[in-house]
Amino acid sequence: MEGKSLAVAVVLVGLCVMAAGMGVLYGGGPPPPPERPQPVPVTESAVGAALKYSMPIYQGILDEDAKRLDTPPLAALEIRQVNPYFEEWKGHRKLKARSVMQTAHFKITTQVSQEKATSDGQAYRTDHLVLRIENLTPKFLAYRIDTKISNEKQCDRKGDIPHNALVIGPLQTIVRTECLYRADETIDVTRVEVIELPALSAYYVSRLPPALVLYQPRTTAGHVPLKGRLCAQTFSWRDIKEGAEKKELDWRDVIDFYARHNCDEYTFFRSYRYRADPSLPLPARPPEER
């Protein structure tokens, strides 16, 4: 019995020591709950991205731009609608001076016109082969009319007629120079593409630098925006060029993006594609920002 009592006493003493230790550590109360995990710090750039790609901010940009550009207001639900795309011609159509070609949206006429040319820094007037492009519809159109000419080197000295090389207004006619004119000169129309746009979208697209969004420098040198200034030449232009060269994207992908986004606020990203589904959200958000 004595040994048993001793064992019980040792256990009791041990419990008392443990209780005393706990009292010292926790002031006599129960142990505190574990600390809550600390939240991941939110960076300023993350906050900026969340705001930039939020619907209220996007709609605010649309409203402000429509007011500034004096175009009908465009709700986010409307700008999500499909922008109808048409490839109206692809092939080889030879046009001599004073020839006519017509598609569903355009009447295209070749003419000879006296325009300013330059040689060794000297300006002079001479005959040019020009393309007259008439919009047959009451809609704003983004357009790309590609042409080829037999000797493009002789076009280096041609003059340029101011025009918007990306967008044509309802029932509007524009004229652009193709090359200096020589007897029996022809142009070869290789492609005609069209996207129908709301007015605000047309103003957005009209600001793009054409040579950086898959247009020919020869025929777009006279480009001027419908209103405002050209878009800044950001890093996305390289993505556009490389994506097109690898046949990952095309003209209509780039135009469709900028028909829905102000280039001062949003930048084209390589995985964006022309939208045939109006349920997709806007603004379009690049994968790295999601």
Overview of this structure, please?
The chain has helices spanning 2-26, 44-52, 55-69, 76-79, 199-206, 217-220, 236-245, 251-258; strands spanning 85-96, 100-102, 106-119, 122-135, 140-149, 167-168, 173-180, 186-197. The protein is of the alpha+beta class. A four-stranded antiparallel sheet has the order 1-8-5-6. A hairpin with a 2-residue loop joins strand 3 and strand 4. The protein is elongated, with a radius of gyration of 33 Å. The N and C termini lie far apart (75 Å).
Q: What is the strand content?
A: 25-35%
Number of helices: 8
What is the mean pLDDT?
86
- Which sheet architecture does the biggest sheet show? 4 strands, antiparallel
Number of strands: 8
* Lateral arrangement of strands in the main beta sheet: 1-8-5-6
Percent helix among the residues?
25-40%
Regions with pLDDT < 50 over 5+ consecutive residues? 1-28, 39-44
For the record, give the distance between the C-alpha atoms at the N and C termini, rounded to a whole number. 75 Å
Number of domains: 1
User: By helix and strand content, what is the structural category?
Assistant: alpha+beta
CA-based shape = elongated
Secondary-structure element pattern, one letter each: HHHHEEEEEEEEHHHH
- Rg, Å, rounded: 33 Å
